[in-house]
Design goal:
By secondary structure, the chain is an alpha/beta fold. It has a single domain (about 40-290), classed as ADP Ribosyl Cyclase, Chain A, domain 1, CATH 1.20.82. The protein contains 10 helices and 4 strands. The chain has helices at about 1-35, 50-65, 75-85, 100-105, 120-130, 140-145, 175-190, 210-220, 245-255, 270-275, and strands spanning about 115-120, 195-200, 225-235, 260-270. The protein has a 4-stranded parallel sheet with strand order 1-2-3-4, with helices on both faces. The protein starts with a helix and ends in a 13-residue tail after the last helix. Mean pLDDT is about 90; it is low at about 25-45. The structure holds ligand AVW. Ligand AVW binds near residues 38, 117, 137 and 211. It comes from Acipenser oxyrinchus oxyrinchus.
Length: about 290
């Protein structure tokens, strides 16, 4: 009797541990798959379900809330967007294929408002959203409409492909990557006055020449229009000086060669987080960026 009791309780214990283990594995799998900027190619996934509805609704929402944007026509924007990649091999959509689409969207980006980021997506967007003092690409209509979405077409068909689209690194000229390169180039070309760049000091190469910031945006900065570039390297380790690292030295050389004025400063992540949690509306001053 005692022995059976012992057996039953051991059984329960195993099944409880078993369930917890399965739960933990599930949570890890789900959280990995929803991570923005996941590096795993996702060949099995196709175009985001309801892409057209999502894009048009986001577009209408945006132009409703930003009065200066009312000249934009969301149906025309959708048409131009889909014409950029439909009927094309999803590994052969060129950056220039989005040219017409980019010109269909009318938006002025005020000087001194542009925020660029690399490997700091979360904190940069949280900062822009909380303070409303700067704009990232994803705060512009172009970026806002496409943020987090996936799309592709196929050759010899005018339909979206909902079954399978190439992943970000699977082939260079996939429709999503070419779009973000084109939109980023445009956003960088429009930058004027003082601009802020948030880099990640907790990785070996805060400035990565292969990133969109390093390979696209930095090349489109116009020294005639940009007064000053504040490079800010965000880190959770106090006293780390990423501004002195090799990768930042590379960035410095590129900026100097392009006659762009800049400085670099290491900033504690906690300072930015404090500001996000207790912002001064329409002011960037809750962080000492200077
Ligand atoms: P990032 P970037 N799979 O943090 O400098 C899917 O490296 O490149 O910063 N999506 C990806 C992948 C991937 N393997 N790698 C990157 N991405 C996408 C536009 C993903 O959406 C703004 F204006 C990730 O969040 C910034 O100044 C994003 O690319 C600059 O370009 C950024 O990757 C940030 O581009």
């Amino acid at each position: 009797m005692t022995c059976r009791k012992f057996y039953v309780s051991r059984c329960r214990l195993f099944s409880i541990f078993g369930s917890i283990l399965i739960l933990v594995i599930l949570v890890v799998i789900v959280s990995m798959s929803v991570q923005h900027g996941d590096n795993t190619p996702t060949t099995t996934k196709g175009t985001t379900t309801n892409l057209k509805t999502i894009v048009i609704e986001r577009c209408r929402d945006y132009i409703r809330t930003v009065p200066q944007m009312s000249s934009n026509n969301c149906d025309a924007i959708w048409e131009a967007f889909q014409n950029s990649f439909l009927g094309k091999d999803p590994c052969n959509v060129k950056v220039e294929d989005y040219d017409l689409f980019i010109t269909t969207v009318q938006q002025d980006i005020p000087c001194n408002k542009s925020l660029f980021w690399s490997k700091t997506s979360q904190i940069a967007h949280d900062f822009a959203k909380a303070t409303k003092c700067l704009m990232t690409l994803e705060d512009t209509l172009l970026g806002y409409m496409m943020d987090g979405l996936k799309w592709c077409g196929q050759q010899h068909s005018k339909e979206l492909n909902y079954t399978s689209c190439p992943g970000w690194i699977e082939c260079e000229f996939n429709p999503v990557r070419s779009f973000w390169r084109r939109a980023s180039a445009h956003f960088a070309e429009l930058a004027c006055g003082n601009v802020l760049v948030m880099l990640n000091g907790s990785i070996d190469t805060p400035f990565n020449k292969q990133s969109i910031f390093g390979s696209v945006e930095i090349k489109r900065f116009d020294s005639e229009k940009i007064n000053y570039i504040s490079i800010r390297v965000i880190d959770s380790l106090q006293d780390r000086v990423s501004c002195n690292s090799m990768s930042l030295e590379d960035l410095g050389k590129i900026l100097k060669n392009a006659s762009l004025n800049f400085d670099c400063k290491d900033i504690d992540k906690s300072e930015v987080e404090r500001c996000i949690n207790d912002p001064i509306p329409y002011s960037c001053d809750c962080v000492n960026w200077k």
